[in-house]
């Protein structure tokens, strides 16, 4: 689950730099050269990966469908939200859509906002209704709302349909096991590039939970800048399926000095690893592309298998140590049987109260642990 304390998305426009202007004119020229506005796929990929990506939403409306393999001339008509309200996931989707108000542009009229919410609900339910094997997950709406805002309802559905069968297919399985395993791909990259950072993060036992919303939403849930979100979507649409793992590794490597100065414990490191607002994403995307070219998935997969085996062995060893330390219970049974009736008869109220307090404290502790670790 993903944390609900989502900050408002910043839609503020920045002044156009000379390099950005140059690229905008380049894309404009390419589009005008083609009557049907179709540009060669490899050309769009190159534009998307290069600095500034596709520059603005006008170009994205034209080029994102081409990147996703969507034919805009053959789009189905969306049903009304009423026709989908009996879907098993309807209530959860509506709940998440209502929570995503901060992802809509500020100041839009109430009627337009309600219409966008209905469109987002329908878009999501259409995908999971058409593909019953795909399971909705919290965070899926963060991806869908980005496409909805840029390309509109019909094209957004077609793009999400494609991505749900490819880039997000692992995230939409019955369980999150495949996703959890995929996140472990971060560690070999860090180990190969910066062994000191890798060892520090392993010793801190921070795990990969901090990166789960980044992976599930292409960073859409965790960033405040709309401009940065759509720039990242340019990059991810033009890249191999698991590229967000490499962007995550690039962020950790960039922040290595800062991380290594932190206390080496899970709480401190997990807290530090929220995404700062001032990350140089164009530089990070260059690093990500370099890492993608440097390390094959086969190499990373092999290292992940070794990590999993080591972890299993560690847990087995710990379990054996704990078992050996446990005293034999057979000699203690008579003492307990003598003591327990006395407690129950002499001080039942004290015993009941003590048990209640212990249970309450445990419940509070674990509840807070899950809240701290989970994405609500």
TrEMBL record:
One of its GO terms (molecular function) is GTPase activator activity. InterPro entries: Rab-GAP-TBC_dom, Rab-GAP_TBC_sf, TBC20/Gyp8-like. GO terms for cellular component: endoplasmic reticulum membrane. Pfam families: RabGAP-TBC. The chain crosses the membrane at residues 235-254, 349-366. Keywords: GTPase activation, Membrane, Transmembrane, Transmembrane helix. Residues 54-240 form the Rab-GAP TBC domain. This is TBC1 domain family member 20 isoform X2. It comes from Drosophila mauritiana.
């Amino acid at each position: 689950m993903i944390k609900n304390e989502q900050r408002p998305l910043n839609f503020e426009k920045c002044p156009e730099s000379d390099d950005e202007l140059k690229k905008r004119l380049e894309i404009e020229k390419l589009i005008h050269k083609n009557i049907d506005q179709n540009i060669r796929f490899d050309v769009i990929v190159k534009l998307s990966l290069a600095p500034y990506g596709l520059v603005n939403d006008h170009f994205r409306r034209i080029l994102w469908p081409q990147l996703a393999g969507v034919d805009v001339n053959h789009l189905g008509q969306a049903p009304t939200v009423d026709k989908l309200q009996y879907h098993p996931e309807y209530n959860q989707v509506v709940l998440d859509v209502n929570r995503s108000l901060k992802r809509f542009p500020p100041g839009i009229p109430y009627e337009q906002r309600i219409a966008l919410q209905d469109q987002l609900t329908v878009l999501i339910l259409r995908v999971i209704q058409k593909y019953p094997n795909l399971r909705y997950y919290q965070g899926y709406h963060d991806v869908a709302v980005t496409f909805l805002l840029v390309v509109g309802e019909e094209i957004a559905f077609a793009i999400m349909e494609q991505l749900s069968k490819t880039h997000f297919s692992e995230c939409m399985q019955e369980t999150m096991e495949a996703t959890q395993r995929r996140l472990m791909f971060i560690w070999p990259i860090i180990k190969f590039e910066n062994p000191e950072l890798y060892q520090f993060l392993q010793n801190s036992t921070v795990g990969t939970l901090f990166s789960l919303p980044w992976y599930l939403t292409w960073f859409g849930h965790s960033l405040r800048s709309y401009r940065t979100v759509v720039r990242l979507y340019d990059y991810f649409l033009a890249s191999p399926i698991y590229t967000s793992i490499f962007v995550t590794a690039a962020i950790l490597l960039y922040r290595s000095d800062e991380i290594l100065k932190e206390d080496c414990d899970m709480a401190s490191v997990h807290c530090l690893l929220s995404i700062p607002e001032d990350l140089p994403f164009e530089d990070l995307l260059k690093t990500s592309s370099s890492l993608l070219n440097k390390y094959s998935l086969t190499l990373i997969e092999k290292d992940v298998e070794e990590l999993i085996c080591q972890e299993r062995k560690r847990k087995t060893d710990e379990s054996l140590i704990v078992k050996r330390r446990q005293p034999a219970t057979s000699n203690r049974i008579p003492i307990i049987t003598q003591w327990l009736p006395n407690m129950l008869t002499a001080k039942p109220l004290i015993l009941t109260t003590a048990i209640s307090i212990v249970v309450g404290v445990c419940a509070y502790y674990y509840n807070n642990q899950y809240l701290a670790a989970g994405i609500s």
